[in-house]
Design goal:
By secondary structure, this protein is of the alpha/beta class. It is built from 31 helices and 26 strands. The strands form 6 sheets. It has a 6-stranded parallel beta sheet with strand order 19-24-23-20-22-21. A 5-stranded parallel beta sheet has the order 3-2-4-5-6, sandwiched between helices. Strands 7-8-9-11-10 form a 5-stranded mixed beta sheet. Helix 5 runs parallel beside helix 8 (191-203), helix 5 crosses helix 14 and helix 10 packs across helix 13 (262-279).
Length: 824
Amino acid sequence: MLRFIHRDTRQPDAAAFSALRPYTGVLAALLYARGIDTAAQADAFLDPRLDALHDPLLLDGVSDALTLLAQAKAEQWPTVVYGDYDADGVCAAALMTEALRAYGLAVTPHVPLRAEGYGLNLTAVETLAAEYKLMVTVDLGITNAAEVEHAQALGMRVIVTDHHQPGLVPCPADVVIDPVLGGYPFARLCGAGVALKLATALLGAQTALQWLDLAALATVADIVPLLDENRIIVSHGLPLFAKRPGLAALMRAAGCPQPLTAETVAFQLAPRLNAAGRIADANLGIRLLLTRDQAEAETLAKTLDRANTERKQLEAEATAQAEAQAETHDFVTNRMLFVRGEDWNNGIIGLVAGKLNRRYGVPVCAMSEADGCLHGSLRGVEGVNLARCLQACDDLLVRYGGHEMAAGVTLEAEKDEAFRARLEAAVAAAAPEDAFLPVQPYDAPLSFADVDDDLIAMLSKLQPFGTGNPAPVFYTPGAQLVRRRACGAQGAHLQLALRDGARSLDGIAFGMGAQANRLPDAVDAAYTLAKETYMGRESIKCQVQALTPAAESRSHLLHQMPQAAFDDALLRLLRDGLAAFPPDMAGKGALDAELIKAVPYGKTGVVSPVGSETDSGLLTALFTPNGETADKAALLTGRQGTLLIAYTRETAQRVLAAAGDRVDIAMQSPDDPRCFHTLLVQPEPQAIRGCWKNAVLLDGPLTPQDVLLWQRSLPNTTLYLAAQSPALRTAAAAIDAGDAQYRALYKLLSRSTFNSLYQTAQAAALTQAQTLAGLSAFHTLGLIAFSQVPFHYTFLKSHPCSLSESLTLGALRALTAPMEAGKC
């Protein structure tokens, strides 16, 4: 159900491109897609200048903070900088500590252990109040009204610097600095960015330049948009990393390539700095950033590198458990995905939430329990403001904080159920259904003929890439997948080559290895481009972000499937149903509608028969139960919940042509637990998972046992049965080779020994499905002992019997009986 959407819904016209001159072509389109409308704005974006940083005095509270800090300096107040335990909080604490020390204050940084919970905590406040007169928070505090008030009651003065959304109760600190408050020109600074603004106001712009490295690292790590001031900070901060001993040592430990990019910071440096706060003590990170001793820096960097390795192992274990929970989640009914672990390290639950969020495209809350409390980390989707949704749960939470796309919570374990219900309701009400559908944004359509060195050079001008300014994603529909193979550990990734016209591009699709044998030859592809060097040779490669079957290839994919696969699946269903629910008698003829209604499992409705080949109203006829209106009962409303099951190729093709992109296609069983409307072919009922609301047997039922088998596999699903289709009867007739052929097959088996079903079918001049039907009949009649996997048969003692007594053949012939009687 993946949709490709243009990142900018505005359609550039001649006037828009004229306003961007001298920027033209793809570069102009990419700039316009980033909200840049004029050449002057483009100049500022492509050449981020330090003098374009906003005056820090525009931030509400900065002037008051300068006054209070001047008093603290004059009276030499002992000062503590209280930071969060993530990369942003650690960088902000180090930055503020160095800045206040440079100003002349005696400062100690403090970062709590993650087990203490997000934000200020009362125990730490009471301990710190015994030693310090002034507390300056960084990257937290805006939602900790009670803790701030307690600190003041103990004699502390408090300056809160934060960038998160305020809570329902205004923060009572002596000074509050937060860019989301007041009229500051750019509200999306990270915590270290806010600390940098205060340092600039305190010591001047020239002195504050030395902390651009810390602000840049935090800006990338905290996933704030790389626009406006953030873009300037990162652009000028990246070249400074090597000058700080701790960062230089961390770069060596991580094996960072040069030149340093924002992507390298995000995927190699930030995780290592975060690792200390996740599974150890975030103060290790502060020590690394503050040290000027090279030997200490090397030791600390290696410690963080080892912590990151341990973090990855813990994350992998918890993620596997969380994904198992997600597989049973009802994505059709619920918009919020909750997962919970009893022994998950609090430091990795945010990573677990992030992975599930990226995989399923829904808001996720991952929680871990300790000492009767739940610590949770949330990740959201565009259109749902998590910080505001959590305000609806204010009375249920011990503490919480965050912003639109990410947040943290702490609550008593006994309030888990109430919290889930309240938050689910808030999230469901916050956004339209389309917010919960998977989308792949792209920046511009592209022909491979336009991919050259000039394009890559032009793209480099848009760096640094990150949130708000992602690496440009291009879209090429109908590309040919000329080569593909699974690679990496357990075949996790997909190595491929795409062709568009006469030009081919090699590339990689991370995490898509399982699709190596599922994708058709024609695909719609979204990808980024980069130049790579291997053994001294440069080439342009694509990194695929998403692949889906091209629109025209969906029908072609069905057409290419071998008929034997449909026949085998149909026969397997017959055999499985009969084995699971043996009837008292075989060969009873066509299924009786009254018997269907009397089935004791779940609910069953009778659907109007499939129309003719030319029926333009196929879906309306098929999905409207008798006596109900189409708009009330249509099963393809919305995007989720209905499984359309086709036993024959003909029915699948007709429904696909009518439904278009409203349905996905799956073979044997759907592999997406989100239950988007799916057309299922060659089904295996026992393997189907997911919380489906409706299932439709498009070709009708095979036998009463077939219906029972489906209802046992989908016990909470409403099952709709179409009338048995002519295509089903034709398929059943083709599988039944007839008594004469089966008697000949029995004689052949007695004269020869065969090692495979294929070999047996070839010798008997039958299809594999016909051969399997015969072998199954001989087995049920007690003539042979037969195993399909591994293939093996043994003759039993011969006894008088008739092929008409075979349950399998009787069921097949019952399906063809209406045709033979002229009752089509």
